[in-house]
Structure formats: structure tokens, C-alpha cells
Design brief:
Elements (H helix, E strand, L loop, with lengths): L1 H32 L5 H39 L11 H25 L8 H22 L2 H35 L9 H24 L1 H4 L1 H4 L4 H23 L9
Helix pairs in contact: 1-2, 1-6, 2-5, 3-5, 4-5, 4-9, 5-6, 6-9
């Protein structure tokens, strides 16, 4: 079991580097560079570049998610860390059901939320998402240990990101690429806009998720407190702020100037 734990963590980190690295490339590099291409350059460069990059992107996303879910099951559900030691079997069952239920189905709540008119109002959407994440963290803290709550919040947000890749970003980008090479009609402008929006959401979520990945070894004073759910929301809020700062920094035109 210990060797399996080590192996899964190793693959989880390597796959995460591949995934998040491509995510940052799309948002902070390619999104700005592609705007400067003329039609001929776009048709020549983008299919080759994006096909390869999106393959690494979605493959990294899947294996990061798969190893993460396996680690949650191995360390918390099988390792006895999911609930306090004096918990009853019923409490263990409730914690397991709620935890895995949110991991597998939390995306669909987010997806409905991301289709509301509120999504066009960035700051308001962020505040509302923090309220939803806060409600989730508070509920998880009532049924499982603080350490498990931290990791499950990160796992749920990571699952949202992975399903965003496979169910929203990749299908939209595939339609765009097929249009560029003439295999299909060019998609409506809403299609690439959806991919760009969901990719931006993933970039914002990735910053707190990376911190949640290591929270089990970093925040014992925080997740052992009665207000651990509030601290988890604070991690997400700070992550949003850091992500916004990255968008500002890397969005400046002078970053493209030859030194």
C-alpha cells in the first residue's frame, strides 16, 4: 500500500505539471499570441500547435484526476483518515457518499451555474462561486475530518477542471480545429468563446487547487480548527486574487516585445 501511495503521488504530480503547464500556456501565452496571427498563419500554425498541445493537455488532465481520486480513496477512505477515530459506521458511510458524490457530480452544479447570466459579470460570478464553495466546505466539515475536508474540496475543484477540459474545452477546440483545416464548417463564434471562458475558469481554480494538493501536510493548525471550512474558502479567495494578478501581468503587451 505504501509503494502504491508513492507511485500514485509521483504520477499525480507529473501529470499535474503537464496539465497545468499547458493550461498556463493557453491562457498566458497562446491566447495573446494567436490574436496577432493573420488568417494564413493561423491556418498553417494553429492546427499543428493546438492539436499537439491539446493532446498533452487533456491527457495530463485525465491522469491527474484519476491518480488524485485513487489517492483520496487510498489515503482517506481506506487509510482511516476520512472521519474521526470515534465515528460510527453510519458516519463513515455518509462521509464516503458525500465525498465521492461531490467529486463525481459537482461539475454538473458548476456547469449549470456557469450557464447563468451571472457568468458575464466576472467579479459577481467569483463572489457567488466563493459562496458555493463555502457551503460545500462547511457541509464537508460537518461529516468528515478537517484534513479530509481540505483534500476533498481540492478534489472537487480538480474534478470540475478535468470535466471542463473533456466536456467543454476539448469539444469546442476540436470544432475550431476542424474548421481551420476544412474538415467541417467554421463553428459559431460562441464555440471558441466558450472554450476560452472555461479555460479561464480553470486557470483561476488551478491556483487554489495546487495548494489543496499539499494541504494535508501543510496546514494541520488550520484544518484542525472549528473554522477550517472558512480557512478553505480563504485559500480559494487568495488563489483567485493570485490568478487575477497573473492575468494582469502576462496580459501586458510589453511582455511580447523583443528584449
Amino acid at each position: 500500500m505504501q509503494w502504491l501511495d508513492v507511485f500514485l503521488r509521483w504520477v499525480h504530480v507529473v501529470a499535474g505539471v503537464l496539465w497545468v503547464g499547458q493550461l498556463y500556456f493557453f491562457n498566458f501565452v497562446n491566447a495573446h499570441a494567436a490574436k496577432t496571427f493573420d488568417d494564413e498563419t493561423r491556418k498553417k500554425v494553429m492546427p499543428q500547435l493546438m492539436t499537439r498541445a491539446l493532446y498533452v493537455f487533456r491527457t495530463g488532465a485525465f491522469f491527474t484526476w484519476l491518480t488524485g481520486v485513487l489517492l483520496v480513496g487510498l489515503v482517506f477512505h481506506l487509510g482511516g483518515l476520512l472521519v474521526p477515530f470515534d465515528a460510527t459506521p453510519a458516519q463513515k458511510g455518509l462521509a464516503a457518499g458525500v465525498g465521492f458524490g461531490l467529486i463525481f457530480f459537482g461539475f454538473f452544479v458548476y456547469d449549470l451555474f456557469a450557464r447563468t447570466p451571472l457568468v458575464r459579470r466576472g467579479p459577481a460570478f467569483m463572489v457567488a462561486s466563493l459562496a458555493l464553495i463555502g457551503a460545500m466546505a462547511f457541509g464537508l466539515a460537518r461529516v468528515m475530518s478537517g484534513r479530509a475536508m481540505f483534500l476533498h474540496v481540492g478534489a472537487v475543484l480538480g474534478s470540475v477542471m478535468m470535466m471542463n477540459v473533456w466536456m467543454r474545452i476539448w469539444p469546442a477546440q476540436r470544432a475550431v480545429l476542424r474548421g481551420l483545416v476544412g474538415k467541417a464548417p467554421a463553428p459559431d463564434a460562441a464555440v471558441p468563446a466558450l472554450a476560452a471562458l472555461r479555460s479561464k475558469h480553470n486557470a483561476y481554480l488551478s491556483v487554489p487547487v495546487l495548494l489543496f494538493m499539499v494541504s494535508g501536510h501543510t496546514f494541520p493548525l488550520a484544518y484542525g480548527d472549528d473554522l477550517n471550512w472558512a480557512f478553505a474558502v480563504g485559500v480559494v479567495a487568495l488563489g483567485y486574487a493570485l490568478a487575477w494578478h497573473l492575468f494582469v501581468i502576462f496580459g501586458r503587451e510589453k511582455r511580447a516585445e523583443v528584449p
